[in-house]
Amino acid sequence: MKGEPKHEGQIDVATDIQLMDRFEGCLLGAALGDAVGAPYEGGLLGGLAWAIVGFGKGDLLRWTDDTQMGMGLAESLVECRGLDADHLARRWADRMELTRGYGPGTSKLLRRIKAGEDWRVANKSVFPDGSFGNGAAMRAAPIGLFYHRDAEQLRRAAETSSSITHAHPLGIEGGLLIARAVSLALDAALPAEEFLDTLHSFCSSEEYRGRLVLVKNSLGGDPDPAWARRSLGCTIRAHESAVTAVYVFCHFRDHFKRMMEFIIKMGGDTDTIGAMAGGLLGAHQGRSALPPELLDRLETRDSIASLARALHDCPDRP
Ligand code: R7I
Ligand code: MG
Ligand code: MG
Fold first, then answer.
1. How many angstroms separate the most distant Cα atoms in the chain?
2. Can you give the pLDDT at residue 15?
3. In angstroms, what is the span from residue 111 Cα to ligand 1's centroid?
4. Is 40 in the pocket of ligand 1 (CB under 6 A)?
5. d(CA 175, ligand 3 centre) in Å
6. Cβ–Cβ under 8 Å, residues 270 and 41
7. Residue 65 CA: which ligand is closest?
8. pLDDT given for residue 46 in this prediction
């Protein structure tokens, strides 16, 4: 039982079951946030395009590139028992379905990797300094889960996995922020101030650190979508959306539906902010915090849950 002294080698079963539940909550929460936010990304035209792609699929909640890449990352971590960047680059390139709404730069460079180009070359082929889109941040949750016990391994894995497609320092930092935030969110007792302070010291650029200070100052007040849009951003750029997801999580850490309503009201990159914030909420609260009536409609729900369990059970997880 929790709190009782343990003998050497004895496993705390309750804690392990809770951790497994939070792994499931995280990957399912990210996919659900992505799928619930997807019809609102890109305004009316984006919604229309998403509806056309989904025509005939009933009320299934369909996820986008955010989840496709996140699941590819989780699979690769499990199969390679840790991060193998070449394996991961191939996995992403092989799995890419264009109807999932990939970012323009990412889809171009994944096509080049699929054609045989090394990711170390492809990642500067579209933008000369690499991309600062939020494509690395949107899929970073599995890194946060897998390496949650070791912040330095987490940093290295987040940097490498981000730079496969997002070599710009701001793109990489988005992946770092979300991976670290997920690892911290697994601790259900962590106070929001401490969570934000740890993230602040983990980040290096003013784009991220300045916004994290704004988020800390907002604690205790009411969340405001217009303020968040203006001061933190809700765009496709990593530094204008990853901290925003942290803000949303801090204000709605146990209200998935209210959190998604807020994200949709804020507008902009709704699927991606939904994926990042949904992953944080699920990591923090576990699977039971996700509304069952929405989970029942989530595309590939069961395989996402079993991938989360495989990630948890991976023998080489630090
Ligand atoms: O980051 P990325 O994979 O896009 C992810 C987004 C999410 O919202 C997904 O849901 C999906 O809809 O797409 O794709 P990128 O094309 O790498 O980056 C996104 C955009 O950021 C680019 O298309 C550019 O508009 C902008 N951007 C840059 N612009 C100028 N210079 C990214 N990097 C640069 C840059 O270096
Ligand atoms: Mg998307
Ligand atoms: Mg998006």
1. 60
2. 81
3. 16
4. no
5. 14
6. yes
7. 2
8. 86
Q: How far is the CA of 186 from the centre of ligand 1 (A)?
A: 29
The stretches of the chain forming alpha helices (DSSP H) are 13-37, 43-53, 65-80, 85-95, 104-114, 119-122, 141-146, 151-163, 169-185, 192-202, 206-218, 225-231, 242-251, 256-266, 270-285, 292-295, 301-313
> Structural domains in the chain?
20-51+62-313 (1.10.4080.10)
Residues of the chain under the 70 pLDDT cut = 1-14
Average of per-residue pLDDT values in the chain: 94
159: which 2 tokens?
Answer: 């940097």
According to DSSP, residue 136 is labeled T
Tell me the C-alpha to C-alpha distance, in Å, between residue 43 and each of 49, 259, 270: 10, 19, 10
Tokens linked to 227? 């303020």
Shortest-distance atom of ligand 1 to CA 130: 36
For residue 219, CA distances in Å to 30, 165, 177 come to: 23, 34, 19
The torsion region of residue 114 among left (phi > 0), alpha (psi -120 to 50) and beta comes to: alpha
Extract the runs of DSSP E, i.e. beta strands, from the chain.
Answer: none
Neighbours of ion ligand 2 (CB under 5 A): 64-66, 101, 271
Dist. CA 34 → ligand 2 center (Å): 7
- The token pair at 318 is 């630090």
What pLDDT does 10 receive?
Answer: 44
34-64 pLDDT, tens digit per residue, is 999 999 988 888 888 888 888 778 899 999 9
104 lines ligand 1 (CB under 6 A): yes
